[in-house]
Design a protein that fits this description.
Largest sheet: 7 strands, antiparallel
Order of helices and strands: EHHEEHEEEEH
Strand order of the largest sheet: 1-2-3-7-6-5-4
Helix content: 25-40%
Strand content: 25-35%
Distance between the termini: 6 Å
Mean pLDDT: 80
Radius of gyration: 18 Å
Structural class: alpha+beta
Length: 224
């Protein structure tokens, strides 16, 4: 599947995901997607009122729409069981954004400089199969509006996020891969998973012989 920017040029971007990821179809009809979310929530929360389920589905669709406007090309949730029998759950997002023109090898360093130094934040430049990447691992408190669950007020949740920034090699664009989780007990497994997903990014179309046999997600985004 191919998409184009305003100039009409295709943006090549392929990715692979390990098992345990459930992808949201960003190209689906919004109404059908909301109905599917409503049905899934009703099964997951059988005691929830209809108004709560509707509010949750609407809030998710609105948030997803804003992310797509900002360059989101992939959104999924993941559930994996660790060797210690913990359930590692979270969210995966892949987005495309503009970057300054120039040497793509310098972009990861500028991306790190642009990220503020904060407590519980770790920054580094790492080498991935697709090139150098800036990685930021940060802990933060995320406020969840009550409207997401059809109730008044809001709640706060502690989240650990691992974000990778990689530059497209020949165009002034960058891809941002971000995984987040609330399961702090599985820190090592979470960082390994985030690195595995970031390592699955490619700016070159894969050949059948090179496609990982364990990959379960279609290996390309709307940009390639």
């Amino acid at each position: 599947m191919t998409a184009t920017v305003d100039t009409g040029r295709p943006l090549p971007l392929w990715y692979t995901l390990p098992e345990g990821f459930r992808q949201v179809d960003l190209a689906a009809d919004p109404e059908e997607r909301m109905e599917a979310n409503y049905t899934a929530l009703a099964e997951l929360c059988p005691d929830a009122a209809t108004g709560q389920l509707v509010a949750s589905a609407l809030a998710f669709e609105a948030a997803l729409g804003r992310l797509v406007e900002d360059g989101l090309v992939h959104f999924s949730s993941f559930v994996l069981r660790t060797d210690d029998d913990l359930l590692l759950t979270g969210i995966c997002q892949i987005s495309v954004t503009d970057r300054p023109a120039g040497d793509p090898h310098l972009y990861p360093h500028s991306a790190l400089r642009a990220h503020p130094d904060q407590p519980d934040t770790h920054k580094a430049v790492v080498e991935l199969p697709s090139g150098l990447a800036a990685v930021v691992v940060a802990d933060q408190a995320v406020t969840v509006p009550g409207t997401l669950f059809g109730v008044e007020g809001e709640s706060t949740s502690a989240v650990r996020t691992a974000t990778f920034h990689l530059a497209f090699p020949r165009i002034p664009q960058a891809v941002v891969v971000s995984l987040s989780t609330e399961v702090f007990e599985a820190q090592e497994e979470f960082l390994e998973l985030a690195t595995l997903v970031a390592a699955g990014i490619s700016f070159t179309a894969p050949t059948p012989a090179r496609e990982p046999k364990t990959a379960v997600a279609a290996a390309h985004s709307p940009f390639g």
